[in-house]
Design a protein that fits this description.
The protein is an alpha/beta fold and 355 residues long. The chain has 16 helices and 10 strands. The strands form 2 sheets. It has a 7-stranded mixed β-sheet, with helices on both faces. The protein is globular.
């Protein structure tokens, strides 16, 4: 098979990172080399990477790229890994998040649309796994599930940066150093560049990735705020589309007011108007469950009152998150603060104590 560079941007030591390393050593049907990209040799993940490379010296290398103006965080690491990998002359490039635990044929599935010539960028998708089965975790999982059609039809939506692949020649032609300059989101900017160049983006159904989460309510709101601000900056059309979802989200509140006013039939009809959206969630959830066979992500396995509580919470949380994303210009991700300024997301550094 054609030589493939697998680039893994790393920051800190994810709990699943050791399992990821084991999985990376067992990829099938692939002639590949791994590039672990960090911003500092003192990163907590480096010792684990060194131990892995000592055991598998033929599989890859560590790439240390200090931050430089215009490139920070994950994008800076990805670009450092990309430039080093391209110098080795691969035919294809694969980008994987460091908390991804790929199945043995994961990378091969991700590359298939490229090898067959059906696309110049392929993508997987992230599925949130509620580790403690708490209400805010389930709300986050369903909220992200609503974005799955945008990944399944990425030509209209966006690729997901946690699992992407493209031909090396496409990366050179697109000039990713320019595409990612000043960008917080690697996937939205890359997707837009591919579409602008007339390229096709394809979804690889076998490449669904379980992302374990342990969220309380503040974690949930921070997650939604970060996602929505990023979308607002890098793909405003999707952000405006998310506002349309606020309208059905108001149905339960409208039904309560109608019932209090004595208009019981309109109240019931208002609630029933949500059934198509609820059915769509169940269909999407069942489809994902049948592929992953992870019982903790199956909505139908929960008690009915719990399912109702999740949907009601989602209808209230989404409007709040949308308003917050419209009014807020700052968020924190992985211990670093970011702010929107002049139409871009800028890195501010570690958040100040008490901020």
């Amino acid at each position: 098979s054609a030589p493939t560079a697998v680039i893994i941007p790393c920051k800190d030591l994810d709990p699943t990172f050791p399992a990821m390393l084991e999985a990376l050593a067992c990829q099938r049907h692939l002639n590949y080399r791994l590039y672990f990209a960090v911003a500092s040799a003192q990163d907590p993940a480096v010792a684990t990477i060194h131990a892995f490379l000592d055991a598998h010296p033929e599989l890859g290398r560590l790439v240390v790229t200090p931050p430089r103006p215009g490139y920070w965080g994950k994008v800076g690491n990805m670009l450092g890994g990309l430039q080093t990998a391209l110098a080795d002359g691969p035919a294809y490039l694969v980008f994987l998040d460091s908390d991804t635990v790929p199945a043995p044929e994961f990378a091969a599935h991700l590359l298939r649309p490229l090898v067959t010539g059906h696309a110049c960028l392929s993508t997987g998708a992230r599925i949130l796994l509620p580790m403690r089965q708490r209400l805010p975790e389930w709300v986050a999982a369903l909220w992200l599930l609503a974005s799955l059609p945008g990944v399944m039809w990425p030509q209209q939506g966006s690729a997901w940066g946690g699992a992407m692949a493209l031909p090396a020649e496409s990366a050179r032609r697109l000039k990713l150093e320019r595409v990612w300059y000043g960008a917080f989101s690697d996937d939205a900017t890359l997707s837009r560049a591919v579409r602008k160049a007339g390229g096709t983006i394809a979804f690889a159904p076998p490449c669904l990735v379980l992302n374990p989460i342990r969220y309380d309510w503040s974690d949930l709101l921070d997650f939604l705020n970060r996602q929505l601000i990023t979308i607002r900056v890098h793909d405003p059309r999707l952000w405006y589309l998310a506002w349309f979802i606020v309208i059905p989200s108001l149905a339960p509140l409208a039904a309560v007011f109608l019932a209090l006013a004595g208009a019981f039939l309109p109240a019931v009809l208002t609630i029933l108007s949500l059934l198509p959206a609820v059915l769509a969630f169940y269909v999407a959830n069942e489809t994902v469950w049948r592929r992953l066979r992870e019982p903790r992500i199956r909505l139908r396995s929960l008690p009915v009152p719990r399912q109702i509580a999740i949907f009601l919470a989602l209808t209230f949380v989404h409007p709040v998150a949308m308003v917050r994303s419209a009014l807020t210009r700052r968020f924190v991700w992985r211990g670093h603060a970011y702010a929107v300024h002049t139409g871009r997301i800028h890195w501010l550094g570690p958040p100040q104590e008490g901020a």
